Amino acid sequence: MACHDCSQGWFWKKLGRCKRCMDQLTSLSVVCWVVWYFWFRDTPSSTGSIALLIAGFACNALLFLHLWMKFVVLPFKKRQGDKRD
């Protein structure tokens, strides 16, 4: 990725800090599910259908981790840091 947060640091330090990543994951997730619904829902055991299901779930899981870090973990850590000072 081209942003400062994504080009540095370990995996857990990147989560929840990059809006570009979250936008891309949202787009990929929507595209995967729309393509699966319109072209592969009638044949759920085909290779293409299974690949799209796995890709859709992977995008959703990573997006969930990003959103969890952004709206739950990072604000909690920030409040905890303010109370310790």
TrEMBL record:
Short name of any one Pfam family annotated for the protein: DUF3624
Keywords, comma-separated and alphabetical: Membrane, Transmembrane, Transmembrane helix
Residue ranges of the TM segments: 21-39, 51-74
InterPro entries per record: DUF3624 (IPR022072)
Domain of life: Bacteria
Name by which UniProt lists this protein: DUF3624 domain-containing protein
